[in-house]
Amino acid sequence: MNSMVEIQTAAKAGSTPNLWSSIGILMRRPEVGSFLGMVAVFAFFAIFGGANFVTAGGTASWLNVASEIGIVALPVGLLMIAGELDISIGSVIPAASMTVATISGYYDLPIMVGVLAALGLGLLVGFINGVLVIRTAVPSLIVTLGSLFAVAGLTLGVAIILTGSTGVAIRADPLAKAILGQFVGGMFQVTIFWWLGAAIIVGYLLHFSRYGNWILALGGDKVSARNAGIPTDRVITLLFMGSGLCAAFVGVSQALLYNSAQVSTGQSFIFNSIISVVIGGVLLTGGFGSVVGIVFGTITFAIVNQGIFYTGFDANWASLIIGVLLLAAVLMNNTFRKMALTYTPKKK
Amino acid sequence: MNSMVEIQTAAKAGSTPNLWSSIGILMRRPEVGSFLGMVAVFAFFAIFGGANFVTAGGTASWLNVASEIGIVALPVGLLMIAGELDISIGSVIPAASMTVATISGYYDLPIMVGVLAALGLGLLVGFINGVLVIRTAVPSLIVTLGSLFAVAGLTLGVAIILTGSTGVAIRADPLAKAILGQFVGGMFQVTIFWWLGAAIIVGYLLHFSRYGNWILALGGDKVSARNAGIPTDRVITLLFMGSGLCAAFVGVSQALLYNSAQVSTGQSFIFNSIISVVIGGVLLTGGFGSVVGIVFGTITFAIVNQGIFYTGFDANWASLIIGVLLLAAVLMNNTFRKMALTYTPKKK
Amino acid sequence: ESKGAKIFVIGGKADDPFWSIVKRGAEDAGKVVEAQGGSVTWLGPQNYDNLGADAADLIRTAISQHADAIVGPDWVPESMDEAFKAVVAAGIPLIIYNAGGLDAADRLGAMNYIGSDDYKAGFAGGEYFGNHDLKNVVCVNTLPGAANLRAQCAGLLAGIAKHGGKGVELPLPMSSFGNPTAVAQALKAHLLQNPDVVGVYTIGNVDANSAANGIMQAGLSDKVKLGGVNMDQTILANIKSGSQLFTIDQQGYLQGYLAVSILNGHVNYGLTVPTREILTGPGVVDASNVDATMAGVQAGAR
Amino acid sequence: MAEPILQLSNVNKSFGPIDVLHDISLAVKAGEVLCLLGDNGAGKSTLIKILSGVHQPTSGTILMDGEPIQFASPRYASDLGISTVHQFGGAFPLMSIGRSFFVGVEPTRKWGPFSIYDRRKANEIAVKAVQEFGITRIDDGDRLVGGLSGGERQSLAIARAVHFGARVLILDEPTAALGVKEAAHVLRIVLEARKRGLAVIFITHQVIHALTVGDHFAVLIRGALAADFRKGEKTREEITDLMAGGEAMAELEAEIESYQSAHEGRAPPVADLR
Amino acid sequence: MAEPILQLSNVNKSFGPIDVLHDISLAVKAGEVLCLLGDNGAGKSTLIKILSGVHQPTSGTILMDGEPIQFASPRYASDLGISTVHQFGGAFPLMSIGRSFFVGVEPTRKWGPFSIYDRRKANEIAVKAVQEFGITRIDDGDRLVGGLSGGERQSLAIARAVHFGARVLILDEPTAALGVKEAAHVLRIVLEARKRGLAVIFITHQVIHALTVGDHFAVLIRGALAADFRKGEKTREEITDLMAGGEAMAELEAEIESYQSAHEGRAPPVADLR
Ligand SMILES: Nc1ncnc2c1ncn2[C@@H]1O[C@H](COP(=O)(O)OP(=O)(O)OP(=O)(O)O)[C@@H](O)[C@H]1O
Ligand SMILES: Nc1ncnc2c1ncn2[C@@H]1O[C@H](COP(=O)(O)OP(=O)(O)OP(=O)(O)O)[C@@H](O)[C@H]1O
Ligand SMILES: [Mg+2]
Ligand SMILES: [Mg+2]
Questions:
Q1: E-assigned strand segments in chain B
Q2: What is an example of a GO molecular function annotated in this UniProt entry (chains D, E) (predicted)?
């Protein structure tokens, strides 16, 4: 609520037509705040993390983690902008891993079959979520909680029946591995490029296509959006399918990356993706946000999480430092925006 | 959003002044829906769980779990009604456990000292959360995420320094144990009574004292609430302190109940308490909810979670059944309300 | 007419790789139980966030269902002992397995103890590193608050110390749990920051895979050796291909199978096993015996 | 222009047990302004929501150009050239002026194989449309709607409807939040739309505004059509009484007057109150 | 009653770099209705937010009963007897009528050692207060505000302010969403409050409403006090021009008239537009 007021003020201030306004236009972009937060935590670890943190290997550390969270955070962010939440991703990821590993690892079918089945599963779960949210008017948090449990249960039950175990190995052929589960230069996951691609596509959708407008309107006021002629049901269903698809993709790529799938990975993604999105400046209540912000938010979170291991700090204090840094990054973000907006070189 | 429309319709419908209206008045209470959801899952397990589920022992299984979630869900629900979230409870619970165990177990100081220190810790964390939320205008999800990590980190770090381990044993004297950590009749935790007490107090606060009005107004529209003369900052801070206190209380009672404290207990409370509150009909976006609803929501969640152990179902499918039941309970809730409202014996 | 034994088995999460094997063992033994008109019910928590308390609740749940016999691990004695004592007080035969040791069984009045011991498992790992001249190790702990995992790390450090080496525990923040990439990257960072480390020990299947990956990315596959506890196909494949040195096996299948079989015999026929403390581990699986183990894993029994 | 564009016959609408509209029959013709009048809660907004596809009637039929039609969704109605400014909402505080102007009907341009939301064009058109309302302060289409004053927001919504209204323009209390100048502009717009041959449905509580632009008046009282007449058929006093739900307003005015005179004796002519 | 209750002297207000109010000096006396007029965005709402403790002035002083005072919070202002109906918000859709009427000043009764929110009393008073506005449909204080029509909500807010306004009553466009009948009721209420010796600040865009109740008029144009005069000192035409931001409205009206006459030649007298 507070941040909304903030933003409105920002918009008003930015629009004063004077010299100051060009800076205003830049500063009122929510991305700037997230960007500065990101720079701040990077600087922190560049200082305390020593030489290793700024090497390629150090960069890969947080970039790899960011890429996987990021691929999920993008569609989760879109959903949040549209006023919905999706926590079922937490079980779609392992379900997709297990699907590809069971089909292409345990039953040795072509890897394509497994990948497509896994992605199809993600789309299906998303579709069901969307339809349930629309039809039942139950809050999406609860609907996707239900599917979180249901998919997790199905995955476990089916895995035990089919493979007799909760973990399945998979050895992908080199091509599939190169596309989905490779370490470039021995350290950078290919998921980084997929993330980049996803950011571009989602960025296009949100900021450059007309659908972005629909999503923003939906999150701003669902009834008015429908009155304005937006096919709200379709948009919501597609957004849930998008988050199912992306979660399934992460599951597939993890299976190929680690040559195995487990029933129980993935729960941490729920929390981490939501947090990244909110750090990136998306309103938890919907209607506002940007893809660049989400990307910066994800990177900030990943840097804070992984950078700690490059410092000499006792690992027992890691969580404390993470907490303080996260807060500092977000504060930096807000404070800077406020400061920039109320500062004016010379009162006209 | 949807549920808000629902509720408004409810109110309108209920107010038609005819015979039908007395049923309307009852039916438009959000508790009725939650109550029916609860009855539905209870019936399910009474049928599939067999005789044992309805015995005292069976009742204790879900009542014990519900009582601990419930003590936290009550203040979390108040916060949600006021438009805020608190996830720091996830680390306040173990921090309080460790505090009382370290002080009164490891250092053998009187149990009172440990309990008071633990509760004070909860109040302090809540106070800091409140002040940060007010001063920084950062969304409370992020602020309390920061304190979640920070408190978890502090707990681990301090525990290792002071006691050299992550788990500490504590033997409370019989009186303290009887008050805080006893099994009544060998199966019912005393926390059930504390929960009852907390529900009465919170119910008084929300529904019978003037402060309840302030909380509802705050969640409805923060700016208008302030304009109407409500000391919003004070209310928010106190609510965060309340959730800190209750979380600390659960931590203390767990330590006494199980004669030990662990650094890592408690994370599941975040999720479970929020879910219980939402099942209970509180709007995730604030401004609406009832204590009875929260209590029913908590019980529903606990029954679903524990009832599964009384059925002969293979544990592999437990999650699936939980997911489906949760959804069914909430759907039941919504559908019933809608049905009851659009049904009219004879069109006037 | 005896209607068979109603046996309740308290264990880990159903989707926990290790516990799913224990569960398989219990269920296989349960086939006999069922043939004799009894039943075997598995009770596991939804998550490990509140382990001691949740497990104690499960024990009470079993009692309230009038179990004929109960098997359970003594993970957090302070939290669970009271519930176990209630089992014995209710006259229900009890076996402690997996955690607690014979001490717990004696203390609680249980019939027997079946299983390994976390400290001993870690200790065996430490000794294995020591014997292979890997004298500086790290124990990756993805659930830093849990007592049993901490005991494992402590055992490891004690084991390596016995051979003149040293080690540290690396506790990861909660946001990394269940995220293999985060675990891999954290380990990589630790290895880059501490170039002297030559051994890595992990406390679970998933973590072992992640750790292998982290070592690879640090470019230290030749120097840093990986060990851990428990196994699955991937881990065995890694051992075979040399990217993992060894794994400690506590043979969970046997824990579940033996506990149920012994109790079934006891309830139906009054049989008892005079051997006190039936140890199922720690055993070491490394390149020398990996092939034999493979078959068992494929069947879901190892 | 004899044939009405829209025609309602025996339309009823209930929300659950509450009947909001009873048996409404009404015709809307091209090149004509229909003023929909009535007290608070009479059902005016509900009626126009039926015409704009937001609600479906409980019973009764709607004809468009003489053919029965079902406005299944707001989108369908707007595709048929019916453009509506609803009483509440319709503004998205966190969206830019340009984006909110074109919500649902965004202009796009090609960029290679992609069709891109044409921000510049949207902003230009939106700003131009709003400035035509005399709100010249708005010159940046990237400003957020939340930063506009109430009157500015209202003007934006009307400008949008006028821009997209091909055949029917529905305005629900468009002048409520507006200043004198802006209100006059809105009236001018309505007349302009009529001149262009659109059918306009105009809801207002201000008698003067209704008299200024209306050709055809329909009065709702408690959900029923209490009067349906054309310009000149009723006096201003009669219309005022109808708008007040059929109550005679004379005594009220007398009351106010007596306060006035008791105090200072300088009340304005009573009729002006209307 | 010579001494003003509230007096502003040289009050300025900026939001960051935007100056919204320049150097306002104004006096509000007991038993008098001050009409605050001005175009959309002129600064009217900002000015009354300063008087009700929502905003602090950037510079300048406020005197109450001749003493300098700082309205540090809305609560403080309302404790001093200043009661405000803001233009937007103020309604809590998911709260009951009784609760929302008494938000912040809930009536309580003793129940043993506890003080209990007196639901019955709150509902009773609230319903009575609203019914006095002629909204007799509302008879259940437990209904949610979200279920009321716009006019009903507005009446509720005004009834609340009147009920709690001990010395100053501030109404920001109270009649905007109201029907003819309800608007007349509001004007009556304003006069009634004046009679009881309250100072009333009344914001409206409807000239007639202003003329009906106003004793004292202040016109804001782009944040500055453009005119400050008493009843009878200016003609209606002059006031209308001032309300339109100082622009002559004559040409606009001529324009509208020409549309009218071009079409049918039956436009109402132009002056009525105002
Ligand atoms: N969705 C709904 N559910 C139930 N009742 C409704 C709904 N929408 C409107 N109503 C009721 O229908 C009646 C007519 O409402 P409507 O909004 O059409 O009035 P109106 O004539 O536009 O009034 P106003 O002049 O105050 O805007 C009101 O009593 C209102 O409470
Ligand atoms: N919090 C704020 N931050 C920045 N600018 C503001 C703020 N509040 C108001 N303004 C600006 O101040 C100017 C005056 O606004 P105000 O709401 O006082 O106008 P008004 O006279 O009440 O107009 P209306 O008749 O449309 O209600 C407007 O241009 C508005 O955009
Ligand atoms: Mg209306
Ligand atoms: Mg205003």
A1: 167-169, 183-184, 188-189, 260-262
A2: ATP binding
Ion ligand 3 — residues with CB < 5 Å:
D 45, 87
Q: Which amino acid is at D87?
A: Q
E: neighbours with 3+ CB pairs under 8 Å? Answer: A, B, D
pTM greater than 0.90 (yes/no): no
Q: Do residues A53 and A310 lie in contact, with contact meaning Cβ atoms separated by under 8 Å? A: yes
Alpha carbon C302 to its chain centroid, in Å, reads 12
Within 13 Å, how many C-alpha atoms sit on residue C275's CB side? 6
Asked if the Cβ–Cβ distance from B147 to A323 is below 8 Å, we say yes
Phi first, then psi, for residue D91 (nearest 5°) are -105, 140
The answer to whether A215 and A78 have CB atoms below 8 angstroms apart is yes
| D 145-174 → A contacts, CB under 8 A | 146-147
pLDDT in tens, D74-97: 888 888 889 888 876 666 777 888
- Token match 């000043």: residue? E105
Give the residue among C242, B77, B31, B314 at the shortest CA–CA distance from A153: B314
What does the alpha-carbon distance between residue C7 and residue B335 come to, in Å, rounded to a whole number? 41
Helix or strand holding residue D62 (H, E): strand D59-64
Contacts of B318 in chain A (CB under 8 A): 153
Going by their DSSP bridges, the two strands D33-38 and D199-203 should be labelled as parallel
- Per-residue confidence (pLDDT) for residue B11, from 0 to 100: 39
Q: Assign C127 to helix, strand or coil.
A: helix
| SS3 track for chain A | CHHHHHHHHHHHHHCCCCCHHHHHHHHCCHHHHHHHHHHHHHHHHHHHCCHHHHCHHHHHHHHHHHHHHHHHHHHHHHHHHCCCCCCCHHHHHHHHHHHHHHHHHHCCCCHHHHHHHHHHHHHHHHHHHHHHHHHHCCCHHHHHHHHHHHHHHHHHHHHHHHHCCCEEECCCCHHHHHHHCCEECCCEECHHHHHHHHHHHHHHHHHHCHHHHHHHHHHHCHHHHHHCCCCHHHHHHHHHHHHHHHHHHHHHHHHHHHCEEECCCCHHHHHHHHHHHHHCCCCCCCCCCCHHHHHHHHHHHHHHHHHHHHCCCCHHHHHHHHHHHHHHHHHHHHHHHHHHHHCCCCCC
Q: Which DSSP helix (H) or strand (E) runs through C220? A: none
| CB neighbour class for D248 (10 Å; exposed up to 12, middle 13-18, buried from 19) | exposed
What is the phi/psi pair of residue C234, to 5°? -65, -40
Residues D179-213 pLDDT 10s: 887 788 788 888 888 888 889 999 988 888 888 88
Window B:16-75, CB contacts with C under 8 Å: 52, 55-58, 60-61, 64-65, 68
Query: Alpha-carbon distance B136 to B130, whole Å?
Result: 10
Contact C71, C95 (CB under 8 A): yes
Place of tokens 């960007």: A35
Per-residue model confidence as pLDDT tens digits over A264-288 = 767 788 888 988 998 888 887 788 8
Chain-centroid distance of CA A337 in Å reads: 23
Sketch the domain layout of chain A as residue ranges: 69-292
Counting ligands in written order, the one closest to the CA of D180 is: 2
Q: Which of A136, A149, A158, A335 to mutate to test the interface with B (most CBs of B within 10 A)?
A: A149
Position C138 scores a pLDDT of: 93
Q: For the segment A12-39, what is each residue's pLDDT rounded down to a tens digit? A: 333 334 444 445 455 556 567 778 888 8
All domains of chain D in start order, with CATH: 6-91+167-243 (3.40.50.300), 92-147 (no CATH)
ipTM of the shown complex: 0.80
As a whole number of angstroms, the distance between CA A332 and CA A36 comes to 7
Closest CA to D151 of D122, D185, D201, D127: D185
CA distance C96 to C73: 5
